[in-house]
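Page 47, continued from p. 46.
Same chain as before, 111 aa.
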Amino acid sequence: MDYMKTNAPTTTQTRDIMELCKGTDNVYESVVIIAKRANQIGQDIKTELTNKLKEFATRTDNLEEVFENREQIEISRFYEKLPKPTLIATQEFIDGKIYFRNPAKDKENMY
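Result:
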C-alpha cells in the first residue's frame, strides 16, 4: 500500500471518542482494532524501508562513501515524513477501510 497517498494527518489530532465508537459501540474494542492495524502498517513500512536500504549495503564502507550516499539519506527522510502508523490506522478506521470481526460476538449471535 502506498502510505504517502493516505489522507491521514502528520501530526496528532484530538478526536471525538464517539466517532471512534461508531463501528463497534465500544471505545476499547475500537482502540484494539486500531492498535492491531497500526502494528501491521508499522511492520509493512519497516519491511519496505529495509528492502530499499539493502541496495546500499556494502561489505566495506570507507568514510567518504558514508558521507556521500545522498540517495540513502533521501529515502530515510521520505520515510521520516510519513504519518505515524497509529495516525494512518486511525484514519483508516474512521473512513471505514478496516475490516474487522469479533468472534465472541459472532458466537453470541448464533444462539
